[in-house]
Amino acid sequence: MKTAVALADIYLRLSREEANSGESQSINNQRNIIRQYCNDHGITIVREFVDDGFSGSNFIRPGFQEMLNHIKTGLVNMVITKDLSRLGRDMSESSYYAESFFPEHDIHYLAISDGFDSEQVNLMAPFQFAMNDVYLRDCSRKIKQVIKQKRVRGEYCACPPFGYMRNPDDSTSIVPDPNTAPIVQHIFELAVKGYSAHAIANILTDEAVITPLKYRVMYRDNFCERGAAHATDRWNHTTVKRILKNQVYLGHTVLGMTKKASVKSKKKIRIPEEDWSITYNTHIPLVTQEAYDTAQYNMGMNTKSWRQFDNIRKSVFNGLIFCENCGSALCSGGSVYKGEREKYWYLTCLNIPKRSANHCEHGARIKYADLVEIVKSELNQFISLGKEDIEDIINLALKERSKNAYQEKDSLKSIEKRIVDIDNIILKLYNDNALGKISDEQLSSMIAKLNKESASLKERAKEIEKKAEKLPVDEAYKAFFSLVEQYNHIDELTPEIVRTFIERIEVGEKILPDGYKVASHSIPYRQNVKITYRFIGNIGTTERAFNEEKASKIA
Hints:
Helix content is 43%, strand content 16%. It is built from 16 helices and 20 strands.
């Protein structure tokens, strides 16, 4: 939308490395320079977008992406940054946004300090983009060289792991942290006793032991607000496993376990263990080799490699089955009576136990053999269908999808209209604030509510658009039945068969007859089982009738 009034979004960015270069690059300095420029040239600032602590090597930054969505609404006709490097340091992408994307969307782009104006001829622009890119690559090269030399010398050139801190007398080495070293030792003691990572995490949470990230946020490192927000009081089993597997607690320096995919990528690639940089006996160990080895052995009891033992129940549904009520995974459980394992094998919601932090009052519990029969029966029904039956199913699905598509299209239009209305309201509020009609406090409160509503609507719109991007119904069903054609009959379920056909299974709680509170062998009950198949999704939740001896499908 082109108007006579200059309405601008301003964008501010600062990487962690640049934060150390002084006040000249600070977010506040960028803001002051841009605001002064706008005041001098009669430009109205509509919204401000900030990425504090983000590299200019790529454009997958929350503030920048939010700004792109905002300018597409047509509420602004300008974008302003302090200089071109604030926009980004990647030569090709920076050039694309400054010289192609913004002009194509009727956006006048200015980089104040570099004298870049998208509505003018910028003879020096290619060199400016190139120099920003060279700066990025040169910084990366220098950092890698320094780190490599430190590793060769056995210096600890990474963030000290939980349990250690920088040596006050030698910043290149680490020493036990008196506040957290006992916590690490406690974790290993529990692991040696046979506690699983999940159990250890729950124990530490119950004991109110501070988590590694929260300790760093509160007492050790300088975190931005975005990073600090991730700190929690609840221990995660993954964190426990990471500590138990780390050889640093044996007194060895282990570095170079990952590397960035490229200079401009945030993705980290795992390095093969044989290529790690390991320097032995560089600092005081927190655990003995014997304790470390015992912990590794006990952790292995819960891994796939432990499945070689016959007394471990091997569910074909691992990673695919969840509780309908709380969404938690279902795990194997049950007893062995008179040598019978299958008969007393159940899949149970992880949150059913009272000790669970997220106790599930209506958790699912289903006999493993019953679920096997249900899945096998449904798959064999698909296999037995003739061509005419399949065509009838596809036609029915097409009609249903067509009806839903109209509803979703209308819903998407309403959402898009409301988002545009919200942006218009926000613009009016800024103008009213500038004219003194509403206070800064009122503006802040109203904008926060409107932004929250807008964000929620955008998420809903994404869900609708994502659903529309799925395979057309006829193609999806054809893809599914092409899998079905590979089988004549399924006599035994295997993990491979289950994963070929199924994406997810949800099981509901047992529904007992009126007057009964506890299930027994003689009391029948009902239970919902929802199976989501590949390509075609779920075809309805099936309620089934059971007793403790036998399962039967309700037609």
